[in-house]
Amino acid sequence: MLDGKNILITGANGTLGKAATQIAKSYGAAVVELDIDFTNKSISQFCVDLTDLAAVEICLASQGKIDAIFNIAGAFSMGNSVAMTSEEEWEHMNNVNVKTMRNMVTATLPQMIENRNGSIINIGANAAIQGQAMMGAYITAKNTVMRLTETISQEVRSFDVNVNAILPSIIDTPTNRIDMPDADFSAWVSPVSVAELMCFLASDKAKDIHGALIPVVGLS
After folding, report:
1. What sign results for the dihedral spanned by CA atoms 9, 176, 77, 210?
2. pTM score of the predicted model
3. What is the pLDDT of residues 98-123, one digit of tens each?
4. Burial class (CB within 10 angstroms; exposed 0-12, middle 13-18, buried 19+) of 138
5. Domains of the chain listed by start with CATH number
6. Which residues of 174-211 are buried (b: 16+ CB within 10 A; e: fewer)?
7. Average pLDDT, the chain
8. Which pLDDT value is given to residue 148?
9. How far apart, in whole angstroms, are the C-alpha atoms of residue 32 and residue 104?
């Protein structure tokens, strides 16, 4: 399904990033993994601060043709009420969820437009479809990702570049299990399910899908 495609995956050292890397490779893609750090870095893994556009551009300068980007890098925080949320928390949620995605788009989209080929798959959040108490900074950041997904799609669809986003509910990760030990893990979304959808959206089978925000909610 992805034979011959070169895919960049951000947040590749996380649970979803690892699943996406494994599945994309199984479909024949060549994968470049990006993250702030890796436990045991391999030749296809690059440590880069995705909030630093200059660092991103330097990192990607030697990567050649890029067919797809999986923008997985991000973070979640419950936080305080809007009135009590610190400036640092607003900035942190925006940087890790929005700025990382924008920097990847800025660094790669001109090439995709020139080649008239490419797919960008972002990670929004099902919770960010509407406001949620005590999650203002996170909801605002993820909703921005979703609105930018729609906006960028409108800007580039005529150049045969597809831009879409997946909106998971709670993903079954070790961190979420630790944070919510009494939850029903079987109701959560499997990282594999999200990764499979990302790979489909990066494939030629999804060439007619533009600006979609796709909920993936499991039984939650």
Report:
1. positive
2. 0.97
3. 999 999 999 999 999 999 999 999 99
4. buried
5. 6-216 (3.40.50.720)
6. eebeeeeeeeeeeebbbbebbbbbbbbbbbeebeeebe
7. 97
8. 98
9. 13
